[in-house]
Amino acid sequence: MWSRRDFLASAAAAPLAIDGGTPVRSTPLRARHFGPLYYDNFEWGFLQEVLKAKSPFRFAGFNGPNPDKVATLEREFAAWMKTRYALAVTSGTAALETAIAALGVGPGDEVIIPAWTWYSCFHAVVRAGALPVCAEIDETFNLNPADVERKMSARTKVLMIVHLQGNPADMDALLPLARKRNVKVLEDVSQAVGASFKGKPLGSMGDIAAASLQVNKTISAGEGGMVYTNDPALYERACRFHDVGFLRSPHQEVLGGAKLEPMIGANFRMNEFTGAVLLAQIRKLDRVVSDIRAAARRVYNGIDGLPGLKLRKRPDPAGELGVGVFIEFSTKQKRDLFMKAMNAENVPARPPGGSAVLPVQPYIEGKRGVHANWPSFSTGRGPEIKYGAASCPRTLDILDRFAGPSLDPKFSERDTDDIVAAIRKVYPKVA
Ligand SMILES: Cc1ncc(COP(=O)(O)O)c(C=O)c1O
Questions:
Q1: 367 CA distance to ligand 1 centroid (A)?
Q2: Cβ density class 62-100: b for 16+ within 10 Å, e for less
Q3: From the CA of 214, how far away is ligand 1's center (Å)?
Q4: Whole-model pTM above 0.85?
Q5: What is the CATH number of domain 41-284?
Q6: 83 neighbors 203 (Cβ within 8 angstroms)
Q7: Can you tell me whether residue 269 is helix, strand or coil?
Q8: Ligand 1 atom closest to 216 (CA)
Q9: The domain 4-30+285-350+404-430 is classified under which CATH number: 3.40.50, 1.10.287, 2.30.30, 3.90.1150?
Q10: For residue 339, how far is its CA from the centre of ligand 1 (angstroms)?
Q11: Hey, which of 71, 322, 383, 390 has its CA 20 to 30 A from 274?
Q12: How much helix, strand and coil, in percent to the nearest 5, is found in the chain?
C-alpha cells in the first residue's frame, strides 16, 4: 500500500515543477475565508428571527422590547475572552478608534504601534490627533520589545500591541515595559481572534482590546468589530463614543447605571443582522480554532526535523491560531525562489500578508493628516518625527525573508499532506 511516508519520500526526490517535474498537486490549493466556511442553518435561523421581528436596530424593537442579538453576542464574546465587558461595533477600525477614544488619547500624546500592521492602527491614532510612533517587529512578526523600549518617551500614552497573523505577541516581555511607565496597553486582536498567550485569551491582558470580525478574520459577518475590557470606566467611555455620546439602557444595565457625563462620539453601532450572524459565529469559535490549529499542527509535525528549517518565532506555540506557517530564509532571493517553486507545485506560499510596512507609505512618510495643520504632526514631537525606510530597516528585512502557505480550517489531511510534501520537496533545493 502507498503510505504517507512513501508519498513524502517520492515527492521529495522528484524534480521540481519549476524545472519541468510533476507538481505535487494538479490544482492550486487555496485557503478560504474561515467564518463563512461554517455558515449553516444556525446563522440563517437567527437572521430570520431578526427579519420576522422587523427589529434590525439594537436599541428599539418594532413592537416593544429591545431585540437581543447584539446584546447576547456582547455577553458571549466577553465570556469567551474572559473579560467583564464587550461592546459590538461596526468594524475593527471602528473598534480601534473607540478604544483610543476610551483611553482619552489626543494631541500631544504618542502611541507606539508596530511598523508592520494594518493601516487602521496608524489612522486611528492620527484621527485622534495623536502621534503614532512605529517600533520595529522581530521574528515573531510582532513588536520587538527592545525597540519598543527605545521608542518610549515621556509622551507615550498607549502601547498598541497587535497580535499579527495569528501569533500572540510576547506579552511577558511587552506588558512590563508599559506597566513600569504607567503606559496603557491596547491589544489589537483582529488577526488572532481565538488565540491565547499562556492560557489567557488575547485581549484580556491589556487595558482594552479591539478586534475585527471582517471577512478575513476568524469569525465573520463580512464586517464587524468588538471592543473589550475589564475596566468599567473604559467600557462606559467606549459605549458612549460608539453611540454619539449616549449610554443606552442595555449598557446602563451592564454597568449598574451611568457614572460619566455625555461625550463626543461617532455612530459605530452594530445592527441586529450583523449581530445575528456573529452570535451564531461566536458559538462556533471553539470549533474554528480547534480546526485551524489541527491543520497547522499537521503541517508543523510534517516538516519537523527538515534540516536547516527555521520558522517564525512563536512565544507560545500552543496559543497560536495557525493561520499560516512561515519559513525564514537567509536572503530575499532564496525566499522569492521558494515562493516561485511552491506556486509551481500548486501549493502557493506567500510573504507575510494582511498588513503593510506603514512608515514607507508615501502619505505616511509625508505626514499627511486629514487637514494640512493636523495636530498629530504639528504638536508634541510631531514636527520632528521621521518615518520612511530608514526608520524600520529590521522590519523591512524580516518581511523580505519569510514566506509560507496560508491555512484553512477545513483543509483535509490530503491538503495538509500536500503542503508538507511541497515544503519537503522545495525547501532543501532552494534554501
Ligand atoms: C491588525 C488589524 N487591525 C485592524 C483591522 C481593521 O479591521 P476592519 O477591516 O474590520 O476595519 C484589521 C483588518 O484587517 C487588522 O488586520
A1: 21
A2: eeeebbbbbbbbbbbbbebbebbbbbbbbbbbbbbbbbb
A3: 7
A4: yes
A5: 3.40.640.10
A6: yes
A7: strand
A8: 14
A9: 3.90.1150
A10: 26
A11: 322
A12: 45, 15, 40
224 lines ligand 1 (CB under 6 A): no
Closest Cα to atom 4, ligand 1: which residue? Answer: 92
pLDDT in tens, 147-160: 999 999 999 999 99
State phi, psi for 243 to the nearest 5 degrees: -140, 60
- Tell the residue number behind the cell numbers 474561515, with chain if given: 34
Residue-wise pLDDT tens digits, 316-361: 999 999 999 999 999 999 999 999 999 999 999 999 999 999 999 9
Helix (H) or strand (E) holding 88: strand 85-89
| Residue 220 beta carbon below 6 angstroms from any ligand 1 atom | no
Where do the domains of the chain lie? 4-30+285-350+404-430, 41-284
Instruction: Supply 209's cell numbers.
Output: 482590546
Question: Quick check: 425 and 306 in contact, CB under 8 A?
Answer: no
Report the relative pairing of strands 110-114 and 131-135 from DSSP bridges. parallel
Single-letter amino acid code for the residue at 378: S
| Residue recorded with cell 461592546 | 87
192 CA distance to ligand 1 centroid (A)? 11
3-state secondary structure of 241: helix
